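Continued from yesterday's entry.
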Amino acid sequence: SIFGKRTLKSAIAQGYNCITGHDLYNYLDLRPDASNDNDHNDYTTKKLKSIFNKSILPYKSLCYNRLPREHRTVIVAHIIKNGYDKKCLYSLGTFPNMERWHWIKQFPELADEINNLENGPEIYPHIKEEEVNLQVNQAHKLGWDHGLNSYFQLVTETTPNNNKIPFITEKSLKPFAMLQPFIQYGPQDNIKVLKMYGYDTLDKWINHSYDNEEDDFKRLRMVLKEFDRLQAISDKDWTIMLEEMLEPLLHNHQLVKKLPIYDYTSQLIPILGKFVGDSNV
């Protein structure tokens, strides 16, 4: 993640955010001569051809959920209840010898689906890739076949409700590498942090207003509402939208292959100002 434990503890104690991400980019390993580079280049060629040809894809969306945390069980329950399971590539893992976590009290309309999922088996995407085991962290894995067969991603970040400050993992970067638009359930202001990194979040086509919502459950409902809207867009309209998005998608695709360069001035000035004020210099 972008926060080490010591950095996160210090940031909370001092009331400011320290955001770094150099190690984060090593997960995807997409830089030239890196282990994923050839596969990524091959994928890029195929994805661009698909966009230029306005190819109709068999699935609307892609949603990875390895560890079955509360929000992920709710999201998969929503997918199943609304009949998106036939048009969504989604996964949901299990905890060893544990029930799946859930927010059944906060989402009572999904109670039946959550109860069925609570002790259910592992769920793999309809297109199951070889050598993928949901008991093993997939941080370095990119689902090329999944990206080629779906239009957009619903990213489910690791701890959307445990941190009151942005928290980014490699999950947020995968749509950029896969030339896909996305929505995300993460902590408040995660989208703003991605913009700070220089990414285009495709606001012309995607409503990320959920990023401003402080309440975790309201924010999830807003994400699911936008997911419903995007899922309802016709295949033909999606092909047109992807062609319209091509320039920012390519911008993100190139940026994710580079280590970020940060200007910390905006973060350091208020910290130094507070220090000077406290010391009466």
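--- second protein ---
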Amino acid sequence: TPADASGRFTGSAVLDKDTGALQLIFTDFTDTSAHPGAVPETVSSAKSTDGINFPLYAGNPIIAGPPAGSPSGFRDPKAFWDPVGNSWKMVLGSGDATSGKVQLFTSSDPDLLQWSYVGVLTEGDGSTGTMWECPNFFPLGDKWVLFYGGDSVGWYEVGSYNGTKFTSEKTGL
């Protein structure tokens, strides 16, 4: 039998300002050659009140798999407070045979354990790779900035955001 390469990929952490707890939201990767039929990438959570021990949430995964149109991957969740929608949002890297994408989710759950799919925040034209990884999305002044890894390099895009879609106005390395 093949070696099992299952494990965890990157994600993000959110501080609960009321309790001081630190919540991790990350990618659980399952090696499908060792576990045929499994979903390769899901989103899971763990929470710590001491910053040392991070017990896994018993209800994992908090997102059971990618939305349609993400055959190249689905990973690296980055949770953030969205002042446009006054809610918690999360971006995840993904892609298909043609272009990289950033998927957008939202949560009204104060524990950040229940997420709903919003849609594709933005996608490339193929020139920045067919899979985007480690997205980060945040406001800066009156613009929004998107960072991601694509085609083995780091990209940035600056533009506008309406709460569900990002429109790029400038792209660079």
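The mean pLDDT is 96. The two ends are 42 Å apart (CA to CA). Will compare against the first tomorrow.
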